[in-house]
Amino acid sequence: MQNQSAPAMPGVVTAARIILFVVCGLSGVLLVMSLLGIVGAFLHSDGPDAVFATVGATTAGILRSFVLGLVVIVLLLVAALRIGRGGTRNHLVVRLLVGGGGLVAVLNTVLSGEGTAFMGFVLPLIVLMLIQTKRSREWFAAMDESARNS
To answer: Any stretches that span the bilayer, and where are they (predicted)?
Structure first.
């Protein structure tokens, strides 16, 4: 058998992967800032309920939003990491992870009333469109062939 090198990742797949990493990074920064606010509220002398009430939120709502945001980051980060492997199975897994991340982000937006729909929904939708192009599908399939031939 010939030892063939893996096909080069097309630009659309690279762009999708970069978008996912950027979204995860920015969301991670926002999540850390949120965590600092939550810790500050719990350390406040009036207690977290009084602090969150000043902005029209509840402690449970803030914590739920934090957990859902963490879930979105994990789903999108795993998707970004799996894109690099290629293969039709990973293509399916990436689509499911990105779609799930987008849906959880929409759920978080609806439950928390925050306007995070751009990063949480639009960018994963763009990623789904990028990895569904003809070149992307061909690359994922070619990665299966490359793995079989190695």
So the answer is: 18-42, 62-80, 92-111, 117-133
The CA-atom distances, in angstroms, between 130 and each of 2, 21, 32, 141 are 31, 15, 29, 15
pLDDT band at 33 (very low <50, low <70, confident <90, very high): very high
Residue 35 tokens read as 């965590």
Read off the tokens for 108.
Answer: 């978080």
Please name which of 17, 31, 129 lies closest in space to residue 73, comparing C-alpha atoms.
31
Give the per-residue pLDDT at 131: 95
Asked if 144 and 86 touch (Cβ cutoff 8 Å), the reply is yes
The first and second tokens of residue 84, run together, are 């690099």
Q: Rounded to whole angstroms, how far apart are CA atoms 142 and 72? A: 29
C-beta of residue 88 within 8 angstroms of C-beta of residue 141: yes
Confidence of residue 119 (pLDDT cuts 50, 70, 90): low
Is the pTM here over 0.90, yes or no?
A: no
Neighbours of 133 (CB within 10 A): 14
Packing angle of the helix pair 134-149, 88-112 (nearest 10 deg):
130
pLDDT on residue 1: 44
